[in-house]
């Protein structure tokens, strides 16, 4: 009996052990699946935020979902897919098309009350363009114009417009604005939580005017404004009040991704941190996503409780990505390959269609085989467009392009853009250094806050990026060896340090080198633009351009003006973008 009991106990113990082993195996299998899911999610997030899309996370493993990455001698090969070209250069620069746009009418029903436009028709006859025609026809400019030299003309004339300054309208005069910033105010003064209205200030006042049918806005922006008005009314979002300092929503920024028509939305909230914008912020974003989920590319919040009228603060920690993709993607305007990547932290033109044409003209003004330095580069739009343009036959490829800008957030966008260009053009090393990875958005924000300098991105032999102001970039040797200098400064014009270098006489005894390490002379006597023969100046502020142009043409730098072209980039406004091409005499 005792022996039977012992055997029975043994059987029970064996059975219990078997059950435990089965449970443990099942648990391990489930955990493995969960880990696999988590790992896949984290890998996907890492790829989306810091590596070229499609790059597999594990070396030596072939992934069907990443089939465009293939192994060749142990290296991954990137085969980008052709992407659309949204603007037809030749159609948009046809003289007959331009003439029709110059004489056309915008016919916006908000004109007169809205301060956004100064004219509703004849967009090329605004005051700033008339001033530009007079300036470039003046005696002071004519005596330094190449056409006057070459044609043997008298540079002393009495003519308000001698035809030198060409005016171009690069896109249609309606529906062109793909980037807008709007003011927010309460819908009624009696009850603050019945929703908000969005618009611009009425002319000569600080009263907000609704512009739901703005004729120059991209249709997606007008639709987004309608959705915002409905959503704020639905959830009772309060607008910020300057008088009482109460409320939440101050401004909105809307950016349209042209290939999809989707809107990247930034909500500027009167709060010091994201947590103080809750729960009102979450209620609003959930309602927006629910009412029209296909409209939104991404949603961001920028916290700004400062008393001034600045839409954004300089504190990078005040940016929060709430949903969607980090980057708005726009096709490079030449060739079949390559994208430009933007975030709300980077500068993006209000009329991307029009700037496509301008970027084409910049690329065409650069001689083939040149070495190019671009200051005030933003995300590198002009430099990368030129690189791709000259890679196409029968053009001669550029030797290299060096870009720089002081906004650290641009580096991440530039690297992502460069990685989208075929290796045969960019020579970009996508394998990279095993110990080096692209900075995440959070890391960039932290470095911006701490005032740290980011390392130069020299991973591409033909294109590189330095995070530095224009003056600092020059004195670090960015333009040494460069044949062409491209500048696209803000409205205030060139920094004084940049002007000083450009106005210096060429030093024939200064060796032509591409790195300051190879110079054998003191920095204070170096002409940091000594090798530059062509200056491409892209101006968005005409008054500053006049001042800079006067200094350049009257200096010992030996500059002469080849041509000046005005672009009506924002039809209806009293604004003109100008490209000036200067050459050393």
Descriptive terms for the model:
7-stranded mixed sheet; single chain; 585 residues; 32% helix; 8-stranded mixed sheet; alpha/beta; globular
Beta fraction of the residues? Answer: 15-25%
| Alpha carbon gap, first and last residue | 117 Å
Unreliable stretches covering 5 or more consecutive residues: 1-6, 21-75, 456-460
Q: Helical residue percent? A: 25-40%
Query: What characteristic shape results from the CA principal axes?
Result: globular
* Total count of helical runs of at least 4 residues: 16
Give the integer mean of the pLDDT values. Answer: 85
Number of strands: 19
Determine Rg (CA atoms, Å). Answer: 29 Å
Secondary structure category: alpha/beta
Strand order of the largest sheet: 3-18-19-17-16-13-14-15
Main sheet summary: 8 strands, mixed
Give the topology.
Blueprint: H1 2-50, E1 69-72, E2 75-78, H2 89-92, H3 95-103, H4 127-136, H5 139-142, H6 146-151, E3 165-168, E4 179-186, E5 196-201, E6 208-210, H7 219-235, E7 249-257, E8 262-269, H8 280-291, E9 296-303, E10 319-324, E11 328-331, E12 339-342, H9 352-365, E13 371-375, H10 381-389, E14 400-405, H11 409-419, H12 423-426, H13 441-450, E15 463-467, H14 470-475, E16 484-487, H15 496-503, E17 534-539, H16 542-553, E18 559-567, E19 577-584
Parallel strand pairs: 3-18, 8-9, 13-14, 13-16, 14-15, 16-17
Antiparallel strand pairs: 1-2, 4-5, 4-7, 5-6, 7-8, 9-10, 11-12, 17-19, 18-19
Helix pairs in contact: 7-8, 9-10
